[in-house]
Amino acid sequence: MPEPVTRTVCLLGFGNVGRRLCELVARNDDELAERHGLRLRFVAVGTAAHGSLLAPAGISAADVLELATDPAGGRRAFPEPVRLGVELLLASGADVLIEATPLDPHGGRLAIAHLEAALGHGADAITVNKGPIAWDYRRLSTLAAAHGRRLLFEGAVMDGCPVFNLFRSCLPDCRLLGFEAVFNSTTNFILDAMGEGVSFADALAQVQAAGYAEADPSHDIDGHDAAAKVAALANVLMDAGMTPDDVPKDSIRAVTPERIAAARRAGRRLRVVCTARRDGGGVSGAVRLTELVAEHPLFSAGGSTLSVLLQTDLMGTVQIAEIGALPEQTAYAVYSDLLALHESR
Amino acid sequence: MPEPVTRTVCLLGFGNVGRRLCELVARNDDELAERHGLRLRFVAVGTAAHGSLLAPAGISAADVLELATDPAGGRRAFPEPVRLGVELLLASGADVLIEATPLDPHGGRLAIAHLEAALGHGADAITVNKGPIAWDYRRLSTLAAAHGRRLLFEGAVMDGCPVFNLFRSCLPDCRLLGFEAVFNSTTNFILDAMGEGVSFADALAQVQAAGYAEADPSHDIDGHDAAAKVAALANVLMDAGMTPDDVPKDSIRAVTPERIAAARRAGRRLRVVCTARRDGGGVSGAVRLTELVAEHPLFSAGGSTLSVLLQTDLMGTVQIAEIGALPEQTAYAVYSDLLALHESR
After folding, report:
1. Residue B22 needs a FRET pair 20 to 30 A away by CA distance; which of A246, B163, B194, B264 works?
2. Across the interface, which of A302, A315, A332 has its CB nearest the CB of B295?
3. What pTM, to 2 d.p., does this model score?
4. Predicted confidence (pLDDT) per residue in A243-275, tens digit
5. Which of B296, B318, B337 to mutate to test the interface with A (most CBs of A within 10 A)?
6. What is the spatial distance between Cα A46 and Cα A59, in angstroms, rounded to a whole number?
7. Which residues on A lie below 8 Å from B328 (Cβ)?
8. Tens digit of pLDDT for each residue in B8-42?
9. Which of A160, A315, A319 lies nearest to residue B332, judging by beta carbons?
10. Residue of chain A whose Cα is closest to the Cα of B319
11. What secondary structure, in 3-state letters, does chain A show?
């Protein structure tokens, strides 16, 4: 067994995904070295409110976790003051940027700046933010290619469920003709709770309390999150060159309990269904409230079970779904991107 | 662009899959050369009743199709007499064997002999037969490794739907804890037709007329086909070392129309559900008649829509399904295996 290759990581964002990624890497450190010949060392960690870490010699994921945890098991700030992500990244000289900052409502501009800095300065980049892929994929992928770097983003849509990798690695030479999907957990929860007789306001409060919805829930409720996922998937797999603004969207605000109850009585489910299809020379997408019959392959999408039907020319329609997604699974997406990066070098 | 690499193929079996593979390769010949640097040339084609072809210089897929088609567009026998598959393979000196002979009821012994001959004589091997993978995977994969060859079989379970590739390429370091699946079209059709009031005998006749069931339908009806798929998946993805004989199976012969009607009234569907799980040190599988509620992710499996839930440690449960499979899709599985082989060399 040859000596493992060390790759240095700058992790921006240390919320749910960042922390769980460190846990996963710490648990699998030996396996990464022995099976894959890869040793990951963290040279920087940036947060918006809990300090930062700059360790040019590189520390292990387990050491990152120790630094971030106080003796009582609570959260501890990193030793250095908060710094701008780009500044931290460049100071760290990392081989790989992992962009896991919280969602920003401005089309992912902060995440885009981080990715640009990485790709323009010799680092590969992994993001779990859908914003950059939804709003700016064509430019960022061109930038990556121009610098001989890679931009990976399996966690940007459907958490760790490998929708991009399935299409790109397992369906070679297939052309994506279109897709149909349920991509948003929050609206699944609200629509189902309303079906149980809960009011819209109470259903929303429940899903916020459970940690699924954003503090500003309009992102989910009015279809912006779903539209961003439509654009991301269409940009990557159909070369659509679209933004979420190009995707017409239904809001669930106007849905009445009576409508949901009527659908239930007919054995149907109301869902926020995302679609895209080739349309003349381009690609058109939509986010529409749709009643699904029980036999429909997306009927079982509910709660955090998300699902997509990929319509291809050579392999007909292939469905992939994650059943009851957990936050760990977005961290797993980053882990699989790190391995893909390592294996392509 | 460097000159494409030529790889020579011996195709055993020229039924639906073999012919459609040649159509697919003929249509994509330029793309294979330009995008993948691969030129496929057929050096032998073997059939059981329609002659054989031996062309050591290699001919294109389009030429194979022309030889196999009479001027009226019907089937024409290949120019040479029928020969034993192994003999033809060895005489051809092919780089790759494509094993696409019809299902044989004796545990795929013929297909196994073909694969052994290929792997033992310096050829890679691709099969669409589940028999070898269900009955003899461990020995065949050991043989392949010992000779530095590869054995690929994406078409053996769920036609071209990339269930093996999904797990092996897109879920790195995941351990498969178990699976739950609907793997058999014939029983889907029969159970649904009975739900519409058709008798078992008539439903069976319909599905045979549609070309889905074998002439001897007990293979499907009594769960042997499903058990073979359980063993194949468990052998490859869980290192189970099992055979279909190790899998207890329910037959659908005893199912009454009343039972199906009662399930339908309750909003449920009766399905032949395949499962496997880790069990102590080993793996146990089963094929069981099961009533599925509408919310179950396998509920939408029906007709030739087949679906599997892969239960993993790191990525929770991931579902993959093919919606309304067509014979072209098994040919596509071989096509994707050919590309995988080429890209690994």
Report:
1. B163
2. A302
3. 0.96
4. 999 999 999 998 998 999 999 999 999 999 999
5. B318
6. 14
7. 314, 316
8. 999 999 999 999 999 999 999 999 999 999 999 99
9. A315
10. A321
11. CCCCEEEEEEEECCCHHHHHHHHHHHHCHHHHHHHHCEEEEEEEEECCCCCEEEEEEEECHHHHHHHCECCCCCECCCCECCCCHHHHHHHHCCCEEEECCCCCCCCCHHHHHHHHHHHHCCCEEEECCHHHHHHHHHHHHHHHHHCCCCEECHHHCCCCCCHHHHHHHHCCCCCEEEEEEECCHHHHHHHHHHHCCCCHHHHHHHHHHCCCCCCCCHHHHCCHHHHHHHHHHHHHHHCCCCCHHHCCECCCCCCCHHHHHHHHHCCCEEEEEEEEEEECCEEEEEEEEEEECCCCCCCCCCCCCEEEEEEECCCCEEEEEEECCCHHHHHHHHHHHHHHHHHHC
Give mean pLDDT, residues A223-241: 97
- Cβ distance of A317 and B324 shorter than 8 Å: yes
Nearest to A300 among B24, B31, B299 (CB): B299
The residue-averaged pLDDT of B178-189 equals 96
Residue B233: what are its φ and ψ, rounded to 5°? -65, -45
Measure CB to CB from residue A297 to each of B160, B169, B300 and give the nearest one: B300
Q: What is the CA radius of gyration of chain A?
A: 21
Give contacts of B 126-155 with A, CB under 8 A.
none
Q: Is B163 on the interface with A (CB under 8 A)?
A: no
CA distance B294 to chain A (A): 6
- Separation between Cα atoms, residue A261 and residue A328, nearest integer Å: 34
